[in-house]
Description:
By secondary structure, the chain is of the alpha/beta class. Helix content is 37%, strand content 24%. The strands form four sheets. The protein has an eight-stranded mixed sheet, sandwiched between helices. It has a four-stranded mixed sheet with strand order 8-4-10-11. It starts with 6 loop residues before the first strand and ends with a strand.
Amino acid sequence: MAKSGASRVVIALGGNALGNTPEEQIERVRNAAPILLKVIEQGNEIIITHGNGPQVGMIQKAFTYANQTDESIPTMDLPECGAMSQGYIGYHLQQAIGAAMHKSYKRWHVASVVTQIEVDPDDPAFQNPTKPIGAFLTKEQADAEMAAHPDMIFVEDSGRGYRRVVASPEPKKIVENESILNLLDNEFIVIACGGGGIPVVRDYSDKGAYKGQAAVIDKDMGGELLAEDCAADTLVLLTAVDHVAINFGKPDQKDLEDITTEEARQYLEQGQFGKGSMEPKVRAAVKFAESRPGRTCIIGSLDKAAEAMAGLSGTRIHA
């Protein structure tokens, strides 16, 4: 639990908010770090999680193209690409937060945890993979990949070529949860569950050890599980807009400032939120707010994270 008088907060940064190149990412996390420290100065303990979609795509494409040029360079599958992205995004965040702390004369500590998330091998999502990943291929290239790797599925994507699709199973358990809690109890700012976490399942042919799965966990649901398991009081999902809105982009658009989970469900049923953008955030918010009395989820913009924590910006969702 958070220390006496302190509130424990999980802050989720979107992968697109980190830019498309390492240089962009360094600049953006440098700008974000002082904002994150303001949340601590408000009397909170923070755990940071982040998206990694653009970063995983960049890593996987690089290995694919390198392999096509030189077969001695192996391709790299999704679990390994996810681990690599967690590592270098965490590294950039650690450096940026460290620089911001140095300027503010703070002596806090920060650490990243490469995080595995256990999923159910019988999750129905594995029978219906829908998440596109990797480079666009011609039909001939896709057929060759499926012949070489029968477990891979490629589908035509909007006339732009063929892409691999993988499952998006529900996260069940954070494998490194005890390590994360130990770091929190020793006053670390923890970075964990990047990209929703690396999906793993039990391998009972290897005494129940974990093995990676080529799948994608929704980053908002991964952040929600992290917030539950860390006994957080608040989950903050940071995105590109200041508020969740209904009738988005229409003349009667309405920004939402404070809604109940029941109201959020009604809006979800009406299809008010974009399926690949705001909808998963609202679903994660509802799940977290209902997981224990007194919990709140805030959805807002990174630039106004401290204001959102103070109730001056963002959309608050509670039971």
